[in-house]
Amino acid sequence: MKKLHNLILFVGLVSTSAQSATILQYHHVSEKLPPVTSVSADTFKSHLEFLKSEKYNVIALDTFIEQLRAGKPLPINTVAITFDDGYDNNIEAAAPLLEAFNFPYTIFVNPKLIDEGQSYVMTWDELRTLSKRGALIANHSAKHDYLHLRLKGESDTQWKKRVANDLTWSQQRIATEIGHNLPYVAYPYGEFDNSVQSLVKELGLIGIGQHSGAVGVTTDFTRVPRFPASGIYSNLKTLKVKIKSLPFAIDKLDYDNSVTTNRKPTFILSFKDMDFYQSQFACFVSGVGRAKLAWNGKNEVQVSSPEELPNGRSRYNCTAPSKTHKGHFYWFSQPWVIQDK
């Protein structure tokens, strides 16, 4: 009976680990625009060729998210492809390649910028064309503003009303122009704080960031991670490892706020189960190096930086090789925005 119990426990652990997938984030497919957010057509094509040759399960973002939210397992090596901002090169360069591979994708757009006729973004007509060809169109806020920032003299109540109006208005514009209304918002610049997350949840939306990591059934769906795949992150050799990553089975994530004046911010991770060796768990601070770890028993770890962080965006990236899925790494990223007091 004990052997049967152990077998059931082992299968349960493997099943939890298998409920994983990654989301890729792109902006431009172009060689003429800023390299930091761009990928050439040839490089983008090489990414798609890799996904096809390795038989990755490339699915639409709505299927991806709703299955995981329902606790339904996704096969390992499941991928969703996304674009931010709705640049015109998406229809000119990206869409033909994606359609040639028969890969679904999502474009996050800023409706007010489209309404203003900004020359660098697609028109509603172009987005409708892509939608009819299978693309999903979703919310990236009205004008790509920093959602967590308060205007001068603005109270928390006024901020909440303004940002809620921004997000709901954008949802309605997309529904009117495109015909579908996915409850997803990709945070502009990938930045969010506790109040933004609470508002997104209150509005019934899924919040999607730009911090790296895999997505699983224990993911906080007000801060869904994506792997940037443009600029320095477009190198296929390193991208292959990220695409294969798994989500840690997180029981609790605890920190004060991701937008903070604390220059040595700390977070605590508690794990439901650990398909990795504690000794192989490591975290790295962007621009600094290895993070400080303090384990509280077997399943809980506190992560902090050994040095003060500069103003702006920083990340702590934590990884560990899987014991049961050889060649796969667990991956979690904690984003920070450091501000002056």
TrEMBL record:
GO cellular component, one term: extracellular region
PROSITE patterns recorded: NODB
Gene3D superfamilies with a match to the protein in the record: Glycoside hydrolase/deacetylase (3.20.20.370)
Compartments where found: Secreted
NodB homology domain sequence ranges: 77-280
Pfam families for the chain: Polysacc_deac_1 (PF01522)
Chain coiled-coil ranges: none
Range of residues in the leader sequence: 1-20
Primary localisation category: secreted
Any single GO BP term: carbohydrate metabolic process
Gene Ontology MF: a single term: hydrolase activity, acting on carbon-nitrogen (but not peptide) bonds
Top-level taxon of origin: Bacteria
Annotated keywords: Signal
Stored InterPro entries: Glyco_hydro/deAcase_b/a-brl, NODB_dom, Polysacch_Deacetylase
Protein name (Swiss-Prot/TrEMBL): NodB homology domain-containing protein
Lineage: Bacteria, Pseudomonadati, Pseudomonadota, Gammaproteobacteria, Alteromonadales
